[in-house]
Amino acid sequence: MKTTATPVVAIEKDDLAEEARRALRMLRGKAVKKVWRHRATELGIEFDDGSRLFVDSKPRGLEISIT
Tell me: the pLDDT tens digits for 8-63? Predict the structure, then answer.
């Protein structure tokens, strides 16, 4: 499954909960293949099926992107 999510910075509690649900649906059951520091504030995680999760620290929260 190749899906691209637009990066979002969840600030409100409801937005954060929805973002967590979306990420969980996209990543459930996947096995981690590789983890690396993509940038100084960003972590990259690649899964066995080729999908990737990027988590970046922002001043007002975390930005996640799943591709």
Answer: 555 567 777 888 888 899 999 999 999 999 889 999 999 999 999 999 998 877 88
User: Which of 63, 67, 66 minimizes the C-alpha distance to 10?
Assistant: 63
Q: Does residue 3 have a pLDDT over 60?
A: no
As a whole number of angstroms, the distance between CA 24 and CA 30 comes to 10
How many Å apart are CA 67 and CA 53, to the nearest integer? 7
Q: How far is CA 5 from CA 1, 2, 37, in A?
A: 12, 10, 20
Cite the beta strand spans of 1-67 per DSSP E: 8-9, 32-39, 42-47, 52-58, 61-66
